[in-house]
């Protein structure tokens, strides 16, 4: 190693490198940002708002540009993916796909911009995302001194609120739906449903597609241990909802849930197992499973204009608008 080169402590290929001096070099996944504003293709309007200045927690809000004040629309609280160490609410790929979801479903959407590892290790992402949920929940009682974000007060039907997220965002939606049961938030918001897109659940023992794909299994093992170096590793209850110490699924505080998986995704069979165990549990809601053939993980983020992405957006729109 030359005198001008720094020693790499952790290489999280192909996304970032952590050096022994503590510096972090991000190579992909968080390098691009796009501002909020009017998207001419979808006629969806977005704006950024700061929730907690002390931590930098913020959110990007979306609504149809054609919506009028007093026109109450379903609200989707969205948690983006990225394995807890990539991406942001300003990522152009997420921004473009969420514009299309909002246009297809005619909804208001809050995309939470939580802190990511390794700069902010877990549980920072969970803490931020829960704080954003509390912020949203302060708005139904705006006239009694609640939240003052005009888009939420003017355009949202707080009787139709949903969690949604892809990958690690779907993971957080799961945990928050369990946590709601014993929280004050449940007194202010009733979550109708959860849309889990390619949910990020994992475990030490390989199942399904993981058994024959040792390379990707090992890669995902390493990603999780990078953001959450706990003694339980990939059987930590945060990532494995069926390990010792995990909460039962019967406590999910919603009436409906949809799990969307992709045929070629290494996480596919974890999503299927989640749906299977949910149906077998004492949970009283209705659960759907949709498998998109020929696609891989978060394909709709990478190419929101493909036919399968359009199909998925229509399914989500139906889910959010079902009475």
From TrEMBL:
Domain Alpha/beta hydrolase fold-3: from-to ranges: 76-300
Gene3D superfamilies xref list: alpha/beta hydrolase
Pfam families: Abhydrolase_3
Highest taxon listed in the record's lineage: Eukaryota
Database matches in InterPro entries: AB_hydrolase_3 (IPR013094), AB_hydrolase_fold (IPR029058), Carboxylest/Gibb_receptor (IPR050466)
GO molecular function: hydrolase activity
Similarity section: Belongs to the 'GDXG' lipolytic enzyme family.
Protein name, as recorded: Alpha/beta hydrolase fold-3 domain-containing protein
Organism for this UniProt entry: Erythroxylum novogranatense
């Amino acid at each position: 190693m030359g005198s001008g080169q720094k020693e790499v402590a952790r290489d999280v290929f192909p996304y970032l490198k952590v050096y022994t001096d503590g510096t972090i070099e991000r190579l992909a996944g968080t390098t691009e940002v796009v501002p909020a504003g009017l998207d001419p293709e979808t006629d969806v309007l977005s704006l950024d708002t700061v929730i907690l200045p002390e931590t930098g927690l913020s959110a990007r809000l979306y609504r149809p540009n054609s919506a009028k004040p007093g026109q109450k629309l379903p609200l989707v609280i969205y948690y983006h993916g990225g394995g807890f160490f990539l991406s942001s609410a300003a990522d152009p790929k997420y921004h473009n796909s969420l514009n299309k979801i909002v246009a297809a479903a005619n909804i208001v959407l809050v995309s939470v911009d939580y802190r990511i590892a390794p700069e902010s290790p877990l549980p920072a992402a969970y803490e931020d995302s829960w704080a954003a949920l509390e912020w949203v929940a302060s708005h139904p009682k705006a006239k009694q001194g609640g939240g003052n974000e005009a888009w939420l007060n003017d355009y949202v039907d707080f009787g139709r609120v949903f969690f949604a997220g892809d990958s690690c965002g779907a993971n957080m939606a799961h945990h928050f739906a369990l946590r709601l049961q014993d929280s004050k938030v449940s007194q202010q918001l009733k979550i109708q449903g959860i849309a889990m897109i390619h949910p990020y659940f994992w475990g030490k023992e390989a199942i399904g597609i993981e058994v024959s794909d040792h390379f990707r299994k090992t890669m995902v093992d390493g990603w999780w241990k990078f953001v959450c170096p706990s003694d339980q590793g990939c059987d930590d209850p945060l990532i494995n909802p069926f390990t010792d110490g995990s909460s039962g699924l019967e406590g999910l505080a919603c009436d409906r849930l949809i799990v969307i998986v992709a045929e070629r995704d290494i996480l596919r069979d974890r999503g299927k197992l989640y749906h299977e165990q949910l149906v077998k549990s004492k949970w009283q809601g209705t659960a759907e499973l949709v498998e998109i053939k020929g696609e891989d993980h978060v394909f709709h983020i990478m190419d929101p204009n493909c036919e399968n992405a359009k199909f998925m957006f229509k399914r989500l729109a139906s889910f959010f608008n079902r009475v």
